[in-house]
Amino acid sequence: MAAQKKILDQEPESTITLVLEPQTIPEEDEKTAQERELLRLREEIAERRKELLGLQDAELKSLKAKEEEAATESKDPWKKQRENDERLCRVRFEFREQPGGTLEFSFKKYPGESLKVYRGKTGLKDGQTYSLPLGVVKHLMTSGRCPEYKHERSIDESQTDVVIGSWRTRYSVSPLDFIADEELQSIQDPQIVTASFQR
Question: What are phi and psi of 123, to 5 degrees?
C-alpha cells in the first residue's frame, strides 16, 4: 500500500484536454450568391443560344436550298417557258400565199438551242394537220402576216402620211387543241405604225 501512496502523493502529470467544438461553416455572403446567380443565368443563356442556333441552322438550310434553286434558275432563266414551248399542239396549216404549196422555214428561239429546219418532207403543206411545238405555233401565228402600206394626205394636204392600210395574210395556223388555244390567246396583234413625211 505504501507504493500506492507514493503514486498518489506525486503531482499528477498534466493532461491535455481536447475539447471539440463544432465547426461552423460561414454563411454565404452576398457576393458569392450573386456569382452563383450570374453563373446560372450564363448557363441559361448558353442553352437558349443552342436552341436558337438549332433553329437558325434549319432556317439556313432552307435558305441554302432556295439559293441553290435560284442558282439553277439563273443558269437557265427561260427553263419554264422553254418547257411550255416544247409542248406539242395540233394545228391545221393553210398556205394562202401559195395554195397547195409547202412552207419551208428555220426556227430557233432560245440560246443554246439547235436550229430546227422545216424543209422538204418536214415542211408544212397547205391543208395538212400537224403536231408542232407550241413555240413554233406562236411564231407561225405572229409571223404569217405582213402589212400593206398606203399613202394618205393630211387634212391640210401639206403632209403625206404612210399608214398601214391592211394586213396581208401569207399563211395561217389554226390550233385544234383547246389547251393550246388558251395559250395562243395571249399573242397580240402587231402594233400599227404610222410615219409622216413633209413635201
Answer: -65, 165
